Amino acid sequence: MRTGIWLVGGRGSVAASTVAGAAAVRAGVLPPVGVVSELAVFRDLPLPSFDDLVFGGHDPATVGLAKRVERLAGDGVVPPDLPDLVRADLHAADAEIRPGLTGTGHRAGTADEAIDTLAADITDFRARTGADSVVVVNVSSTEAPVTPHPAHASADLLTAALRRPEDAGVLPASSRYAVAALRAGCPFVDFTPSTGARLPALDQLFRDHGLPYAGSDGKTGETLVKSVLAPMFARRALTVRSWSGTNLLGGGDGAALADPTRAAAKIRSKDRLLREQLGGPVEGGVHIHELPDLGEWKTAWDHITFEGFLGARMTLQFTWQGCDSALAAPLVLDLARFTALAHRAGRSGPLRELGFYFKDPVGSDEHALDRQFDELVGWAHGLTRAPR
């Protein structure tokens, strides 16, 4: 069953790694390392196969996917011969990328008209490629947090606002893409901490239209480690006194998060896990710094102080160094495959069971990685038994 993956931010590093990785796995030139959906526990599920995946997307950038993957090879992210091995797949995906929203995300006219254009791009892609279904995944740059607007409260208010030129800015770009996915009859996954579908009005619309959505903010590095360590402290009754994380980022992610308003959305997402796992806030917080010299790589250093029996004060530190696009790409493939399966099973609304993949999972307060994984396994197998 052919499945489309429509990537918002379709010419960025994460999208390029996703398309190149799927092509490499399909051709048998690289193993599916990091692709959780390829684990033995999921092998008997009717997930979309790599042979059946087709890619398109929205991105105003003009640097093509082939050139982007060549740059990733130059930075040591992917093998040096990979761009040539998957060039045909990269060109095929690149031909399916449309400009989408540009600049601030506002076009002349109403937001309703702009969203219709985005939705038409997706439906045209589905028809042109013969895809049975399309999953829209947002892998674009992080947006600043939005100020609540009355139109965000209900589907009726939002629908009315989108039709008025004076309310063209009522929705951030990520939420416009979510509405476009909905109008095209597609599930939506937000891999970023942007607003996306996480508004009461949009939640209502996805439920009303029988479509699932998932998010938000892919859990790829420092927070992945936190989701193992924080439950350890809690379950051993050790009191965490402080937890400070310093993040050094290069590339597009570092440039985007150099903007304090955008960084605020990321920090809020990263902070949620500790607050909920440890029973409240702890001293320290998350600190994000752009370091262009790192390029596609990132470093996180965490310093933790905790108290044990008899008041003994102790310290734990860890350093995480990795490439965000290489960590994110297999998760994007997982999320698209599991979401497509959920869509076929008739699920709608937030997919809380995909919280395993997110820092700030919609519909769920569970952050312990082991429990999230168990929930994912049980849910995924339940989809094949659930009536439509």
TrEMBL record:
Coiled coil: none annotated. Residues 221-325 form the Myo-inositol-1-phosphate synthase GAPDH-like domain. It comes from Streptomyces pseudovenezuelae. PANTHER family: MYO-INOSITOL-1 PHOSPHATE SYNTHASE. SUPFAM superfamilies: Glyceraldehyde-3-phosphate dehydrogenase-like, C-terminal domain, NAD(P)-binding Rossmann-fold domains. This is Inositol-3-phosphate synthase. Pfam families: Inos-1-P_synth, NAD_binding_5. Belongs to the myo-inositol 1-phosphate synthase family. It comes from the Bacteria.
